[in-house]
Amino acid sequence: MKVEKIVLRKMKMKLKSPFQTSFGTEQERDFVLTEVYGDGEIGYGECVVSTAPLYSEETAGTAWHILEDFLIPMVFEQGTFGHPDEVGKLFAPIRRNHMAKSALEGAFWDLYAKRQNLSLAKALGGTKKRIEVGISIGIEEDINKLFRTVEHYLEQGYRRIKIKIKPGKDVQVLRALRDRFGDIPMMADANSAYTLNDLLLLKELDDLDLMMIEQPLAHDDIIDHAALQKQLKTPICLDESIHSYEDARKAIEWGSARIINIKIGRVGGLSEAKRIHDLCRDNGIPVWCGGMLESGIGRAHNIAITSLPNFKLPGDTAGSSRYWTEDIIRPEVEVSPDGMIEIPTTPGIGYQPVPEMLDKYTVAKKEFAKR
Ligand SMILES: O=C(O)CCC(=O)C1=CC=C[C@@H](O)[C@@H]1C(=O)O
Ligand SMILES: [Mg+2]
User: Fold this and answer.
1) Can you identify the CATH homologous superfamily of domain 5-117+352-369?
2) H or E element in which residue 101 lies
3) Which residues are annotated as active site (predicted)?
């Protein structure tokens, strides 16, 4: 692949409804899209930052700076690439900034798959034709509204309900959902809202037959999660704690989690996500694909990685209409009545970004070519 041009777009898209977690509420998504032009094709990637640095240290502003001032010049310095795996290796000297790296690396994977006339799923080694999907529901103050929301998504066929929790909005809410809906597949995501001092409360969660408790403790912890997992029968799933293959290896060795949520942006790209998938497969740790309230481009990348065989649990890749009045891709991502998404078989990400839609939500755009 010879890189001819790279385009960055700063995007602003309003979510259909606010999304509340234990660390804040998002109503509007400020993120970055990447376009890599080469050999007559365009590869697309998404930088899955949050508007404020509350999930991780990255924002659209930090990512744009790292892309413009470091990663894009490094790409033009190398000029040509045989395989997308080379992109992550090229970026290795740059510390962290994983979502910025992933946005560009993902566009290379899309471009590579298109040039190989392969779907991105196939190019990644995916084996599935359809994927199971779940739904992530933000913290809801009104329990009856939460009941209606859960009812709505169960009727739509979603195969797992993820409930965001925080102190004061946890055991009672989950117990009420159990009383109302019985033994539906349900999990909780705490986004690091608890500490080991909350052990008695976390033990109450242990009696609710949850599929898993996602990231109960600190966002950068592996040791305390290992201590907690020994006290709980419910599997702990790590999200924010796992930034790399090495983090996953240490978490597995320490017994910090029995499940891992893989987010392509959080770990720095599809090549690293594949490595973590393979490590977990070899250690009997099932994984699923987490979401970052992506547009259709990021959603397409999530669908492709979820086609790998050890993605054994429903992920957060819901349909476009869950988040957007209109998505920037065609077709939009649809979920079948039995809670599945068909893996595209066309080359690359399999969904076509629509230029007019991209322009409609672009608040800043810049083109880069080799000087
Ligand atoms: O994209 C989705 O539907 C999942 C959204 C979601 O649960 C999250 C998005 C971003 C950060 C967190 O709030 C949370 C997560 O931790 O998975
Ligand atoms: Mg999470």
Assistant:
1) Enolase-like, N-terminal domain (3.30.390.10)
2) helix 98-115
3) 164, 263
Which atom of ligand 1 is nearest to 50's Cα? 10
Ion ligand 2 — residues with CB < 5 Å: 189, 214, 239
Beta strands at 161-164 and 362-369: parallel, antiparallel or unpaired: unpaired
Q: Is pLDDT at 371 greater than 80 in this prediction?
A: no
Report DSSP letters for 264-285, one per residue: TTTTTSHHHHHHHHHHHHHTT-
The answer as to CATH 1.10.287.990 being correct for domain 122-342 is no
What's the first-to-final CA gap in the chain, in angstroms? 18
DSSP letters of 225-266? HHHHHHH-SSPEEESTT--SHHHHHHHHHHT--SEEEE-TTT
pLDDT of residue 198: 97
pLDDT in the model for residue 267: 98
| Separation in Å, CA 268 to CA 95, 103, 177, 271 | 11, 8, 36, 8
- Name the residue at shortest CA distance from atom 4 of ligand 1: 291
State the closest ligand 1 atom to the C-alpha of 294, by its place in the atom list counted from 1: 1
Q: Write out the residue limits of the CATH 3.30.390.10 domain(s) in the chain.
A: 5-117+352-369
Residue minimizing CA distance to atom 10 of ligand 1: 292
pLDDT at 340 over 90: yes
Best probe residue, ligand 1, of 17, 19, 324 (max atoms within 8 Å of C-beta): 19
> Are 317 and 121 a contacting pair, CB within 8 Å?
no
Q: For the chain, how many residues are written?
A: 371
Mean pLDDT on 283-306: 98
Q: Which of 29, 316, 317, 335 to mutate to test the pocket of ligand 1 (most atoms within 8 A of CB)?
A: 316
Q: Is 239 annotated as a binding residue?
A: yes
Mean pLDDT across 256-267:
98
Q: For residue range 195-217, what is the model confidence (pLDDT) as tens digits?
A: 999 999 999 999 999 999 999 99
- Looking at all shown ligands, the one closest to residue 134's CA atom is 1
**Residues 215-250 pLDDT 10s:** 999 999 999 999 999 999 999 999 999 999 999 999
Q: Is 85 annotated as contributing to ligand binding?
A: no
User: Is the pLDDT assigned to residue 296 strictly greater than 80?
Assistant: yes
Q: What percent of the chain clears pLDDT 90, i.e. is strictly above it?
A: 97
Distance of alpha carbon 144 from alpha carbon 266, whole angstroms: 34
